[in-house]
Amino acid sequence: MDKQSIYDMIEKRGFWRVITEHEPVYNMEEAGRLELPYPESDAKNLFVRDDKKRNYYLISVKGDKRVNLKAFRAKHGTRSLSFASDADLFKYLGVEPGAVTPLGLLNDKACAVKFFIDSDLCREDGLISVHPCDNSATVCMKTADLIELLRECGTEVEITDF
């Protein structure tokens, strides 16, 4: 799915959303310089794989948090983790580096990627701001709507503390 397809899907579903078009950003530092309407809902997204390249995970946390992959591994019983390649990023999520997003999981038709989301993004009336598979825009939406959409598409979603 591309940016317009995602916009269309969100609109068709009637989800609350605020869309901000902006210059392309490639990391959280650049994103932090944007004037977004809900900066506290920014999500940092990490696409990782195990050392055997058998299991892939997308991790989304509040933008100001750091993710300790060793602690994540111990808590979730995974093998050693490292960042997935650009080729795997495109193969599984259909996005380029800098555009990593949970909305990319809509492109994972085999549901091969497990999604872990920070419980701080899931609080009552929680919002999440992510790219719509393109790093020149940000969609802020209700986290519960995002999780509902992903689960309906078959993505395994786990809410966890970071």
Polypeptide structure, described:
The chain has helices spanning 3-13, 28-32, 69-76, 86-93, 143-152; strands spanning 17-21, 43-50, 56-62, 81-83, 113-118, 127-130, 137-142, 157-160. With 162 residues, it is of the alpha/beta class. The chain starts with a helix and ends with a strand.
Features:
162 residues, alpha/beta, 3-stranded antiparallel sheet
Order of helices and strands: HEHEEHEHEEEHE
Low-pLDDT runs: none
Q: How many beta-strand segments?
A: 8
Strand line-up across the major sheet: 4-2-3-5-8
**Tally of helical runs:** 5
Largest sheet: 5 strands, mixed
Structural class: alpha/beta
Considering DSSP H and I runs of 4 or more, what fraction of the residues is helical? 25-40%
Mean pLDDT: 96
- Oligomeric state of this protein: single chain
Distance between the termini: 29 Å
Shape: globular
Strand percentage lies at 25-35%
Question: What is the C-alpha radius of gyration, as a whole number of Å?
Answer: 15 Å
Give a short synopsis of this structure.
This protein has 162 residues and is an alpha/beta fold.
Helix and strand arrangement:
Elements: H1 3-13, E1 17-21, H2 28-32, E2 43-50, E3 56-62, H3 69-76, E4 81-83, H4 86-93, E5 113-118, E6 127-130, E7 137-142, H5 143-152, E8 157-160
Parallel strand pairs: 3-5, 5-8
Antiparallel strand pairs: 1-7, 2-3, 2-4, 6-7
